[in-house]
């Protein structure tokens, strides 16, 4: 699986396959390999292999490093992670995705710097 693959335009990292991104998203939620395997309806060994490929593609040393790099470089969507955690449906996911794609305003930046949340 370490063959050639394209890179994302804004990233030096190789694009994750959909199942790899899904496994890494579950890891971002804090699920164990066994819990991820149950959610993805596959074996624990398969989850371990998917995550190992993510680590390789992202030059990551562990799950935390892989999740941080994947979110930072747009390989997994934080809005999807947030929606999975909060359990919102597809319509709300689209609203979140649209909201996070907007450019921050001065008000948003000030609120973020003060440690609050934006509305």
Model description:
The protein is mostly helical. Helices cover 61% and strands 0% of the residues. The longest helix has 15 residues. 20% of the residues are buried.
User: What portion of the residues fall into strands of 2 or more residues?
Assistant: under 5%
The number of helices is: 7
Shape: globular
Helix vs. strand class: mainly alpha
Helix and strand succession?
HHHHHHH
Q: What does the average pLDDT come to?
A: 74
- Helix percentage: 55-70%
| Largest sheet composition | none
Number of strands: 0
N-end to C-end Cα span: 43 Å
Rg value: 16 Å
Summarize this structure as a short list of keywords or feature phrases.
119 residues, mainly alpha, 7 helices, 61% helix, 0% strand
Compact description:
By secondary structure, the protein is mainly alpha-helical. The protein contains seven helices and no strands. The N terminus is likely disordered.
Q: How are the secondary structure elements laid out?
A:
Blueprint: H1 18-28, H2 33-40, H3 44-58, H4 63-72, H5 78-86, H6 90-101, H7 106-113
């Amino acid at each position: 699986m370490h063959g050639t693959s394209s890179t994302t335009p804004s990233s030096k990292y190789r694009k994750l396959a959909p199942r790899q991104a899904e496994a890494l998203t579950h890891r971002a939620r804090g699920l164990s390999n066994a819990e991820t395997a149950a959610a993805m309806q596959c074996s624990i060994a398969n989850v371990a292999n998917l995550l190992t490929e993510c680590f390789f593609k992202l030059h990551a040393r562990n799950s935390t490093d892989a999740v941080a790099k994947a979110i930072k470089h747009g390989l997994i969507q934080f809005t999807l992670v947030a929606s999975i955690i909060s359990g919102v449906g597809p319509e709300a996911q689209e609203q979140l995705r649209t909201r996070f794609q907007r450019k921050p305003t001065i008000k948003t930046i000030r609120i973020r710097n003060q440690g609050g949340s934006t509305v």
